[in-house]
Write a structure and sequence with these properties.
binds zinc ion, 4-stranded mixed β-sheet, single chain, 16% strand, two-stranded antiparallel sheet, alpha+beta
């Protein structure tokens, strides 16, 4: 599903929620995020701060939680306790390979995971909202740098957006700049 401000407004209204100006601004950021990018609440806050939108971090936390519960955003647990968000788009259904050292993320498509999950849900009478596999990894850069012993715990590989592996795979930087 892809939301426009208007369709989201009626969707939220029908469920007793409002598309406040803040939520609309947050939605706008995600709609304009380059494919393969994911934002943490803190990154979203910094981005909106730069635009002087005046939205507090606690409002952002609440909003992204709500929008995830409604299936508008997808919540990803990239590293332990480190949540990132992206727009939930049915036509771009994908899973994530995540480096535990630097959070670098690669997206990949695999319909059989979704199909299998749907089958299981049907069998048990559950309704599927989202299906995402997070594959926990060490990225090639961190391995080259001698992970784990040679790397300080706060080391981060260069998070540049690299070329796609294929049409469906996108290498991601979780920063925008
Ligand atoms: Zn993604
Ligand atoms: Zn890494």
């Amino acid at each position: 599903m892809t939301y426009t401000a208007n369709s989201l407004k009626s969707e939220l209204n029908s469920r007793g929620w409002r598309l406040t100006p803040q939520r609309e601004k947050i939605l706008h950021v995600f709609q304009n995020l380059p494919k393969g990018n994911h934002l943490s609440a803190e990154e979203l806050y910094e981005l909106l701060e730069k635009r002087q939108e005046g939205i507090s971090l606690s409002t952002i936390y609440r909003s992204v939680k709500l929008m995830s519960r409604m299936g508008i955003l997808r919540e990803l647990e990239l590293a332990e306790g480190h949540k990132h968000y992206e727009l939930h788009q049915a036509h771009h259904h994908h899973h994530h390979i995540v480096c535990v050292q630097c959070n670098r993320t690669i997206e990949f498509n695999n319909d059989s995971i979704l199909k299998h999950s749907l089958k299981q849900c049907d069998k048990e009478g559950f309704q599927l909202i989202d299906c995402q596999l997070t594959v926990t990894t060490i990225c090639p850069e961190a391995i080259r740098m001698g992970w784990p012993s040679a790397l300080p715990s706060n080391w981060c590989c260069t998070r540049t957006i690299s070329k796609s592996h294929s049409e469906s795979d996108v290498v991601n930087s979780s920063t925008l700049e």
